[in-house]
Amino acid sequence: MKILVCISKAPDTTSKIAFTDGNTKFDETGVQFIVNPYDEWYALVRGIELKEQHGGTVTTITVGTAADDAVIRKALAIGADDAVRVNTDALDAFQVAEEIANYAKDKGFDLILTGKETINYNGSQVGAMIAEHLDLPYISLATKLDVNDGTAKLDKEIVGGSQEVEAQLPIVVSCAKGMAEQRIPNMRGIMAARTKPLQVVESTSSGQLVNFVNYELPPSKAAVKLIDPDNMDELVALLHNEAKVI
Fold it and tell me: What is the mean pLDDT of the chain?
């Protein structure tokens, strides 16, 4: 089985977020970047598990610059066989999807896996766009994926519950919580990642469709007012007179 896993970098959730150039660019100064958790914990690990069950290869693909190589090596340390980096800034979801689809279209992948979204943009768009570019079936928000004799059986999230679906390979799947359990790279994997192939290819995209005009931080949280648990009258008065329903 030939599996392609889409990997992106994201700021660590403990990073302090700031912007530069009149709030038009994300300030990466001092920011620790990680593999996007949905890509790593669910898409990548499930891809590796399927390779272990059925044989084959797991390739990761990332749209980004040389600054992304560290997170790519992390994915290789977890167990991917090789990696591809499309050498361009990832500017919007359409561009990322087009770059990945252009690379994958003649490579014969049985499965293309993505995380359900990135933790910095939460767009949940790239998987569907890849499928559209490649004219492949797309299953979103999958929490379970098994493959047997060219048929994929999946559970996917829907409003109010879950749905069981089947599809013939090749397919594109976005992976959500429940798909797999996080793997921690061991020393052997970390050492092996240093020598695993990382192919750099040039951009073939027609370009971005979205321009980011301005970023804005959420308003600062208001001060918290603490009430003595024995002073119920004050609490009731504050709830009546000062509390706001959001």
Answer: 93
Asked if the structure places residue 245 within a domain, the reply is no
Q: Is pLDDT at 53 greater than 90 in this prediction? A: yes
Q: Is residue 226 a part of any domain in this protein? A: no
* pLDDT tens for each residue of 83-125: 999 999 988 999 999 999 999 999 999 999 999 999 988 899 9
Distances (CA, A) of 70 to 28, 75, 85, 106, 175: 15, 9, 12, 27, 23
Per-residue confidence at 54, pLDDT binned at 50, 70, 90? very high
* CATH code (residue 111): 3.40.50.620
The pTM of this model reads 0.87
Residue pair 112/140 in contact by the 8 Å Cβ criterion:
no
Could you give the angle at the alpha carbon of 209 between the alpha carbons of 94 and 104, nearest 5°?
Answer: 25
Q: Which domain holds residue 107?
A: 2-217
Maximal CA-CA distance, the chain: 71
Number of independent structural domains in the chain: 1
* 3-class state of residue 78 by DSSP: helix
Distance, C-alpha 86 to centroid of its chain: 16
Q: Residue 100 in 3-state DSSP?
A: helix
